[in-house]
Amino acid sequence: MALKIDQDHARFRHIVRGRIRENLRQFISKGELLGRKGKDMVSIPVPQIDIPRFRFGSRDAGGVSQGDGDVGDPLGDGQERPGSGKAGQGEGQHSLEVEVSVDELADVLGEELELPAIKPKGEARIDEDAERYTGIRRVGPESLRHFRRTYREALKRQIISGTFDVERPVILPTPVDKRFRAWKATSAPVANAVILYMMDVSGSMGDEQKQIVRMTSFWLDAWLGRHYKGLESRFIIHDSSAREVDRETFFRTKESGGTMISSAYKLCKSIIENEYPPDEWNIYPFHFSDGDNWSMDDTLACVDLLRQSLIPWSNMFAYGQVESPYGSGQFVKDLRGHFKGDDKVVLSEIPNKDAIVQSIKDFLGKGR
Q1: 314: three-class secondary structure by DSSP
Q2: What ranges do the domains of the chain cover?
Q3: Can you list the positions of beta strands (E) in the chain?
Q4: Would you say residue 50 has pLDDT above 60?
């Protein structure tokens, strides 16, 4: 019975995953999921799911149909069509809410977008101690007593000593018979990663643009978190100058003024140099802007910072350009010109919320 229940539950979860995939774009553009992490459970509305089953008619109905008709006439189901008849008391059809974790949603995202597995770097350089039960010992706490081994030792002792009675097979372990599980610490490689989010908060970046950045960042966090046990996120905002902030300030701040993108890249470089050795960390800088920079001189300074440090240090460098009625959109064109053919530079334009899915695929589709 338990096996049958497990099979039915697994089948139901498979159907739910299929429904989520069908409506993935809608779920990704929902702001309600923001702030959730990993194992957090979220409620997802899906259409009512009916498991296929046989339905039997009434015994007294008789025949295969009712009423007059000729050979070849299509058979109806005897039900009134929607919109006909008088008001009633019955229940209508409702959507079903199912609980899934953010990790499950990230897996569905990866399946639907056909995202490749991330290939971390530096995993052999960072070790984590883990305890594993690998043996048996004669001493230990009662909570680790191995019952089968204990009774086997007691049985062996009683047989050897001649005290075992086949007619009355009672086994009484003594302290000398007790066996306990033994553990040892093992060193396992673990890969750590850091995402450095940079966002333009100048006057041309409105609330809608920031919301697009926020939703994109949430799904980037969710997917990368499935591949790295230790994932850190750092946040930088900039207009004509840059500063590091917490997550809440990153998405809520209201700034104004001009734009000097190089200020964010300089701060990003400083954080990596001081806290994240590139040979030990998987580094992912993500920059979001409307593409309006102060001057061509500052753009060239950005190109130099990218070419000399940020790109060589990183698994990939990603730039997402959101569309703004006030931004020129020039910066993505400049980056395409300077880094054409560079696999570690990923550029994506995000005109609206509907483009978030494609942007995520642009950023994560290479599996770096």
Answers
A1: coil
A2: 1-26+38-47+98-114, 127-187, 191-364
A3: 41-46, 96-101, 127-137, 180-189, 192-200, 230-238, 242-245, 281-289, 317-322, 345-350
A4: no
